[in-house]
Amino acid sequence: MSDQRLIEEAYDDRSLLGDATEAVHRTIAALDRGELRVAEPSGDGWVTNEWVKKAVLLYFAVTEMTEMRAGDFVYHDKLPTKTDLAAQGVRVVPPGTIRYGAHCERGVVVMPGYVNIGAYVGAGTMVDTWATVGSCAQIGKGVHLSGGVGIGGVLEPPSASPVIIEDGAFIGSRSIVVEGFRVRSEAVLGANTTLTASTPTYDVTVPERTEYRGEVPPRAIVVPGTREKELPGGVAHLQCAYIIGYRSEATDRKVSLNDELRDFGVSV
């Protein structure tokens, strides 16, 4: 019987968990090596591998709490920290943490931040100081998660889509992206932008304002804002986001990004 079937049957009937224990461990090891992913690009979208998320949930049921050490740090948990970082070409600055079952490609830098189980971080991405990458989040190549950024995690229900940050995106300081939101390739979020499944994002670069929910388009430059809403007790100013421009095509993207952010007056 395949590992996928063993895991799916044990998830529905925990009395079968003993038969699926080795399959669960193999699946989490494959996640750790980057051979499996919780979600994968498919065409213009992403597909969630529900059975892999089920394996992550079952992993906590088949492992015991234990005291472990990472240098001078002492932990009491079910998951060790990731090992063999030098061989994988990943830099982790103390006390940054990558949890076992997460995968970081070569060239990833984790400052004193955190990458949780099931997450995937693409080559050359920077996870800056106190930035967190939640369980199962998918981060692309060459992404910058600035200081204090919160990328939400999701395990239940298994069908729920994880947060997706695509290649080349720049997430400004203290921004929050949760609830399966998708930041598409090379988009820029200004500092303190909060994006959830229900947060409206308005494109104000066009004559007829366009609204997005659940994602921002490629190369969009997004800043936080508010919108008025009539409520029984009066007018409330609820959170939203605005697309105020788009990154232009340029050969040297780092230089062009700095120049464009200055032009738009965007704090990151």
Concise structural overview:
With 268 residues, this protein is of the alpha/beta class. 21% of the residues lie in helices and 32% in strands.
Radius of gyration: 20 Å
% residues in beta strands: 25-35%
Cα shape: globular
What composes the largest sheet? Answer: 10 strands, mixed
Which class do the helix and strand fractions yield? alpha/beta
pLDDT below 50 for ≥5 consecutive residues: which ranges?
none
Arithmetic mean of pLDDT: 92
Query: Strand sequence of the main sheet, in spatial order?
Result: 5-8-11-14-17-20-25-26-22-23
Characterization of the model:
The longest helix is centred in the N-terminal third of the chain and has 17 residues, at 17-33. Helix content is 21%, strand content 32%. By secondary structure, it is of the alpha/beta class. It has five helices and 26 strands. The chain starts with a helix and ends with a helix. Strands 5-8-11-14-17-20-25-26-22-23 form a ten-stranded mixed β-sheet, with no helix packed on it. The mean pLDDT is 92.
List the helices and strands and how they pair.
Elements: H1 3-12, H2 17-33, E1 39-42, E2 45-48, H3 50-62, E3 66-70, E4 73-77, H4 85-88, E5 91-92, E6 97-98, E7 103-104, E8 109-110, E9 114-115, E10 120-121, E11 126-127, E12 132-133, E13 138-139, E14 144-145, E15 150-151, E16 164-165, E17 170-171, E18 176-177, E19 182-183, E20 188-189, E21 194-195, E22 201-203, E23 210-212, E24 215-216, E25 220-231, E26 234-246, H5 253-264
Parallel strand pairs: 5-8, 6-9, 7-10, 8-11, 9-12, 10-13, 11-14, 12-15, 13-16, 14-17, 15-18, 16-19, 17-20, 18-21, 19-24, 20-25, 22-26
Antiparallel strand pairs: 1-2, 3-4, 22-23, 25-26
Helix pairs in contact: 1-2, 1-3, 2-3
